[in-house]
Every structure is written in C-alpha cells, then in structure tokens.
C-alpha cells in the first residue's frame, strides 16, 4: 500500500516535470508570436489611418476631425513602435513576418528612423490640432517619407498590403 502511494507520487512528479519544460517553451513561443501578430495588426491599422488622411487632404473640404483623430493615433503608434521589435521577433523566429533581420543587425539606423518618425508624427498631430492647416498636407507628406524610408530598408518587399509601391 505504502509502496503504491510512493510509486504514484513518483510517477506524478515525473509527469509534472516532463510537462513543465514543453509548457514553458510553448509559453515563450506564444508570447513572441503574439508580439509579432500585434505588430502586424498595428501597422495595418496605421496603413488604413494613413490612407484615410491621404484621401482627406486631397479633398476640397477635408474632414479635419477625422484627420486629427488619425494623426493623434499615429503619434501614439510612433512612440509605441519602440517596443514592437524585441530581440527574437525577426525572421529567425520561423514565424512569417515582413520585418527584415536588418532591424537587429543595423539597429542604429532603425532607431534613428523611429526617432524621426516620432518627431514628424508629433508635428503632424500638432498641426492637425492647432494649425496652421495649410501646412497639414506638407507635413503629412514629410511623415509619409519616413514611412517609406523605413520600409525601403527594413521591410521585405512584395507585400500585397503595401501602399508605397514596394
Ligand atoms: C521605423 C520603421 C518604420 C516606420 C517609420 C514605419 N514602418 Fe510600416 N512597417 C515597418 C516594418 C518593419 C513592417 C513589417 C512589420 C511586420 O513584421 O509585420 C511594417 C509594416 C507596415 C504595414 C503592414 C503591411 C506589411 O507589408 O507588413 C503597413 C500598412 C505599414 N507598415 C504602414 C506604415 C505607415 C503608413 C507608416 C507611417 C505613417 C509606417 N508604416 C512607418 C517599419 C516601419
């Protein structure tokens, strides 16, 4: 009887021990996967916000409230973006991504572009809130140039979703 209990305890410990390792690996994988999925979704939303501003600034009577809403959000994303590329979330993860490995092998330039993006997005937000609105279109273009420059260097081409022709 006593032997039986000990045996069961032992078996239980072994099973517990064996499942612990794969579970922790699974958790790590899922976390990176989640980060990459969130990153992709945020960029997709950013693309949509950008598209909508693009449409509005072409109009005779743009919807400034809509532009402002998107500009505020883009600035939030520009800042958040500093957290979107943790080590291990590149192509080496084996998970499908359009982020190039250069994000981590050439990090200084990437960071410089992120900083530039934050500055231009902040300016876009400021103008969309307090004006002068005649400068909005030019600042929007300037912001878009940072998007394109970063994509040129750090995003794989041949994306179906691209709005910048690469
Ligand atoms: C500092 C670099 C950087 C900046 C600035 C940047 N992007 Fe990106 N963008 C990326 C990277 C890297 C990806 C790939 C993300 C991934 O792995 O899913 C991406 C992905 C995207 C995607 C998703 C489609 C795809 O092919 O993966 C869209 C849409 C997009 N960006 C739009 C924008 C817009 C609009 C701006 C500016 C308002 C912008 N991006 C600014 C680096 C940048």
Topology:
Layout: H1 2-58, H2 64-80, H3 102-105, H4 107-130, H5 136-154
Helix pairs in contact: 1-2, 1-5, 2-4, 4-5
Plain-language structure description:
- Residues 162-166 have low confidence and may be disordered.
- Helix content is 73%, strand content 0%.
- The protein starts with a helix and ends in a 12-residue tail after the last helix.
- By secondary structure, the protein is mostly helical.
- α1 crosses α2 (64-80) and α1 crosses α5.
- It has one domain (38-154): Four Helix Bundle (Hemerythrin (Met), subunit A) (Up-down Bundle).
- The structure holds heme C.
- The site of heme C has 25 residues, from α1, α4 and α5.
- Heme C (HEC) is lined by residues 39-40, 43-44, 46-47, 50, 74, 97-99, 110, 113-114, 117, 143, 146-147, 150-151, 154-155, 159, 161-162.
């Amino acid at each position: 009887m006593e032997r039986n209990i000990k045996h069961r305890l032992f078996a239980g410990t072994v099973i517990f021990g064996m499942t612990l390792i794969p579970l922790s690996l699974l958790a790590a994988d899922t976390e990176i996967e989640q980060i990459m999925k969130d990153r992709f979704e945020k960029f997709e939303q950013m693309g949509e916000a950008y598209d909508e501003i693009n449409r509005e600034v072409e109009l005779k009577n743009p919807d400034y409230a809509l532009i402002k809403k998107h500009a505020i959000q883009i600035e939030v994303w520009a800042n958040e973006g500093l957290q979107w590329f943790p080590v291990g979330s590149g192509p080496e993860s084996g998970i499908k991504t359009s982020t190039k490995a250069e994000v981590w092998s050439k990090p200084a330039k990437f960071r410089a572009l992120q900083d530039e993006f934050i500055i231009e997005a902040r300016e876009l937000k400021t103008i969309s809130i307090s004006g002068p609105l005649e400068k909005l279109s030019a600042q929007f273009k300037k912001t878009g140039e940072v998007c394109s420059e970063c994509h040129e260097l750090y995003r794989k081409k041949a994306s179906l979703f691209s709005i910048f022709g690469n």
